[in-house]
Amino acid sequence: MMRVPVLALALCAALPAEAKKVKFAWEPLSEGTRIEQQFQNDARLDAKLVVGGSETEGMTAKLVQVEDKAFFVQSAEDGDPRVVEISWQDHHISQSRSGRGIDDSQDDVHPVSGRTFTLDVSGDGLSIRPNAEGAMLEAIQTAGAQLSTVMALGEQLDGRALATGDTLDPRSMGQLVGSMVGSPPRSAELVLEGVEKADGRKLAVFDLVVEVGDVTGAGVGMKLEGKLRIEPRSGRLQSIEMRGPVHMTSDGFEDGVPVTTVMDGELTSSSTLVWTHE
Fold first, then answer.
1. Is 1 exposed, middle or buried (0-12, 13-18, 19+ CB in 10 A)?
2. Which of 161, 178, 243, 260 is the right S-S partner for 21, CB 3.0 to 4.6 Å?
């Protein structure tokens, strides 16, 4: 019998093991698939006004946006939903302001709140029942884009095996993240952090970094960091949570005098999805 030198065995033992990879698959949506999505934005902004070159008393604004809706696939063809029902249990924004002699708050309920719409692409083009326009149509279109993005992310992962530290092309996240923060991101980065267990299921956890605009320049700027969780065996998105600084500037006139508003604060954004089948 050939003997393996002890030194050779020791060298082999010292070699690093190949990193264990997370394998992903995509479970296409089918008739009876139901997705419940809960979304919330919390923002606090401290504003200062520069009127005619002189800084005036500042103001603090707080905003909470809540959206609770469900998608139900009534029919599908080859994994592609053809008729989808979207029901909003709640959709509202709460705002408050204080400073400059102002102390007020208000709640605005979105017109889709408590309503159900059906998107049908089984024929020629898209039809929406009942008919919707204005803010309702915009909310329906945003919801449809969110569903498409969730599907695109799962399809992008299908058949792939990723190791800790691997990056994922985040282009498919653009519409979803943009709908969460109100502006399309100029850059996004997804890096696999590892795997965790929740309620007996294995979830892949990605580190997420999103940049919108320029946090030091004009207009709207955000740099948000957080986590994105996906179930590898189905490719289905489970949650997104992001947090980071927000910077906004705007220019205008007040009684013919130039006014610049500068706002700095923090945004926390989260979205959870629960998948079932009826």
1. exposed
2. 161
Give the pLDDT confidence of 51-71 residue by residue, as tens digits. 777 777 788 999 999 999 999
Q: What residues does 268 pair with on adjacent strands? A: 42, 243
* Residue 93 identity: I
Better-predicted residue by pLDDT, 214 or 152: 152
Split at pLDDT 50, 70, 90, the class of 98 is: confident
Mean pLDDT of 8-33: 74
- How far apart are alpha carbons 38 and 196 in whole angstroms? 21
Residue 277 to residues 29, 35, 73, 216: CA-CA distances in angstroms?
10, 9, 9, 46
